[in-house]
Amino acid sequence: MSNTLNVDPADLSRDYFRAKAWRGHFRRPSVLPGFGLTFGFTLFYLTLIVLVPLSALFLKSIQFGAEAFWIAATAPRVLAAFRVSFGCALLAAGLNVVFGLLLAWVLVRYRFPGRRVCDALVDLPFALPTAVAGISLAALYAPKGWLGQYFADWGIKVAFTPLGIMVALLFVGIPFVVRTVQPVLENFDLSYEEAATTLGANRWQIFSRVLLPALLPATLTGFALAFARGLGEYGSVIFIAGNMPMVSEIVPLLIVTKLEQYDYTGATAIAVVMLMLSFAMLLVINLLQAWARRAEQRR
Amino acid sequence: MTRGTTENPWVRRSLIGVALIFVAIMLVLPMVLVLSQALAHGVGDYWRALSDKDAISALKLTLLAAAIAVPANVIFGVSAAWCIAKFEFKGKQLLLTFIDLPFAVSPVISGLVYVLLFGLNGWCGEWLRDHDVKIIYAVPGIVLATVFVTFPFVARELIPVMQEQGTDEEEAAATLGANGWQTFWRVTLPNIKWALLYGVILCNARAMGEFGAVSVVSGHIRGLTNTLPLHVEILYNEYQGLAAFAVASLLMGLAVVTLILKTIIEARTERAEEHT
Amino acid sequence: MSIVIAGVSKAFVGFRALNNVSLEVPTGQLVALLGPSGCGKTTLLRIVAGLDTQDSGAVLFDGTDMSQVSARDRGVGFVFQQYALFRHMSVFDNIAFGLTVKPRSERPAANAIKQKVEQLLELMQLGGLGQRYPSQLSGGQRQRVALARALAVEPKVLLLDEPFGALDARVRKELRRWLRKLHDELHVTSIFVTHDQEEALEVADTVVVMNAGKIEQVGSPDDIYDSPASPFVYQFLGDVNLFQTNANRNARAERLMSTVYARPHELHLERVPSDREGIETRLSGQRRIGAVVRLLLERTDGGGVIEAELTHERYLSEQWRDGDRVWVRPMHPRRFSDAVH
């Protein structure tokens, strides 16, 4: 029996059908002007600034030949640098998850003096030039630095060791986890927790069984973003790393070193491997984000 | 917050405490250190370090690079956001991924690709040498590297905002007889101005602060191809700690201003959203 | 301006939005496109406005083919379902927009624009709200601003997409009467899209009932209600009871099944069987809805449940108890041969 509906589902489905209408054509017709101009310019600029330079890298590596490439990419010093970069980035990203979740939780759920300032400060690693972060962290954690002296008392050396690299990567990675988890937490409907409470769950059970699963996609995305950033990070690391070959030399630094020695083959080979890893990470991050979006929509 | 959904006060207090200590040590302390080192020998020495000839020329180059990179990426960002947010076409996802690429690439590699393209041994190296054009180890290289690393910022801010706003207002403008430019200037732009400003601020912060990419293409020629971040490195490596931190404090000021503006814009957009 | 829609089709993949639709709208009429979700009514409206493009067929304004004319130049006023008010402009600037984007040679002087907008604000009962922003207005006020904005450029045709869809029931009723009054004053050829039959019947001169990309019936509200051309129209316009009967009882040939349609308030309900044949039922449920009472009558022959409506007054004057035997006879039975389906 028909009667008045408030929303006409046809108008919801309209967009869906219209989206399909242009199948077989490059784009859906629209009354709005300027597609040709803006699309053309976008493609031109993208090609000029990003695609051509990046393909120059790949072409160069082909030019060198497979054998030279393989030798350059698998030299012990290179492998050691990859181990250092991977290990530090992984551990730092892990720590970022712990502190990022904590910060996001405290910023979203609690009201306390200085909350807004803390919230703004979380973005500092985005805004602070990496070189400034680098020299500042190096000075802080040097054996005689403000913080380094306490570690030195315990016989721990932070600056100029892989530990220092981790500190730097912990710094640059903070915003990634906080800023991906924060919005999810903000949109998280309290009624889920209330429901769990009425069902007799305590706070810890609610956190681990209701909240954490909901936050998982965003947390993993934040982890992957922090990890990807950590792999490629240069400015904030080199001052505190000590840069000892085989011990505390990161991959980006090795590329620069090779370049300064005019070893283009070496630099290019390492860079190509690195770039492939970045693309793989980009893919992983895209998949994670798609998953996070779906998880968000399901609720 | 209702009773059923909060922790007992002690848990709450200790969580807040840990968070505050973390923020203090990881974020506040480095800034305090920069200031204290910069001013370690008083304001006079601080001022002298800043007014050094090389520092000034580094500042000028930094401003120049940003003055080119930011407008270029604003034009790109607006153009990309218009075609991506207001139209449906094939390969849109791929285009979005390409736009994100510079975020995924290590800054060092961003510099390296230009060296491989324009450097002496690069693809265009010989042609450039023959025509006496210098890009690598010169200002154009620095500008290019800066444009590359700041490429996605504006587009990334605008696209989601414009997508969310849909095309209804633009269609309405069309039925009222407005042409493309009128629609853009009078309907679209006012709607995205805060997102645009936000993108510009982030883009500018990165443009002025970029280190890795610029370092690779710069050649570190004092007074010629040194930007402020590179100047910090040189001074630091020469054990001129005071000067290094003085210049660093300048960049830190930029970061603080960026954060403040960012917070203001976020508060504004939040209010605007509550309004509608 | 008169509008002719000539054989317009629009297909989406696996879905025909419009299937060879033709329609004439004479100058000065107010026409409702009425139909259920997905029937193509909004698509048709957008094609008339030039916001969408038809695959085949033509739209003619006063006999001129508009196919190659862009939405900018068609001179139509379009009121969007969600209003699409420019959110960063005041009400005044919203209404003035269409005038201020005219080429310099055609643009009215600033004070002429001001006068025009003030006049429209008065007409729309929006006096004093000119400096407000859309976010500061109620739904009904936004709707009127959207209408004023569309009217400011003096369109030859006014198109409204679900103009009252986003409003609550009371405002909706008020506004549709007001729209009717406005149309009587302005006489702009208007088409509006709605899925609400009451709205269409109350406001429009002509109602166009659409279903599945086709026009089912075109007619005055009375025509549409009293003589629906198809079972679909009958059912779409209100609650209905269906009776499977043997239509040609006396015919010698095959006994054609047909379905009789009758509205719940158009049933004779008798407590004793009369000489004329009625359907025997048993009262199985009753529910009062404001001024009417709805009775559920279960057919004793197992043919299902019939819904009947009484005025509350009659309900009180007669005693109705569950289990009562009631004979039901349609007052204005409509027959559609099943072959039509």
Can you characterise this structure?
The complex is a heterotrimer of chains A (299), B (276) and C (341). Chain A is 77% helix and 0% strand. Chain A has 299 residues and is mainly alpha-helical. Chain A has two domains: 1-63, no CATH class; 66-298, MetI-like fold (Orthogonal Bundle). Chain B starts with 8 loop residues before the first helix and ends with a helix. The longest helix of chain B has 35 residues, at 241-275. Chain C is an alpha+beta fold and 341 residues long. In chain C, the strands form four sheets. Chain C has a six-stranded mixed beta sheet, sandwiched between helices. In chain C, strands 13-17-14-15-16 form a five-stranded antiparallel beta sheet. In chain C, a hairpin with a 2-residue loop joins β1 and β2. The model of chain C is unreliable at 246-255 (pLDDT under 50). Classes of the chains: A mainly alpha (299), B mainly alpha (276), C alpha+beta (341). At the A-B interface, α2, α4, α5, α6 and α7 of A face α1, α3, α4, α5 and α7 of B.
Brief characterization of the structure:
Chain B is an all-alpha fold and 276 residues long. Chain B is 79% helix and 0% strand.
| CA-atom Rg of chain C in angstroms | 25 Å
Secondary-structure element string of chain C: EEEHEEEHHHEHEHEEHHEEEEEEHEE
Structural class of chain B: mainly alpha
How many beta-strand elements of chain C? 18
Distance between the amino and carboxyl termini of chain C: 37 Å
Strand order of the biggest β-sheet of chain C? 6-7-8-3-9-10
Topology:
The complex is a heterotrimer of chains A (299), B (276) and C (341).
Chain A: H1 9-21, H2 35-64, H3 66-73, H4 76-109, H5 115-121, H6 124-127, H7 130-141, H8 148-153, H9 162-187, H10 190-198, H11 203-232, H12 235-241, H13 251-260, H14 264-298
Chain B: H1 9-38, H2 42-50, H3 53-86, H4 92-104, H5 107-118, H6 125-130, H7 139-150, H8 153-165, H9 168-175, H10 180-209, H11 212-218, H12 228-237, H13 241-275
Helix pairs in contact in B: 1-13, 2-13, 3-7, 3-8, 3-10, 5-7, 5-11, 7-10, 7-11, 8-10, 9-10, 10-13, 12-13
Chain C: E1 3-12, E2 15-25, E3 30-34, H1 41-49, E4 56-61, E5 64-65, E6 76-79, H2 91-100, H3 110-123, H4 139-152, E7 157-161, H5 169-186, E8 189-194, H6 197-203, E9 206-211, E10 214-219, H7 221-226, H8 231-236, E11 241-246, E12 257-262, E13 267-270, E14 279-289, E15 292-299, E16 305-311, H9 312-317, E17 325-330, E18 334-337
Parallel strand pairs in C: 3-8, 3-9, 6-7, 7-8
Antiparallel strand pairs in C: 1-2, 1-4, 4-5, 9-10, 11-12, 12-18, 13-17, 14-15, 14-17, 15-16
Helix pairs in contact in C: 2-3, 2-4, 3-4
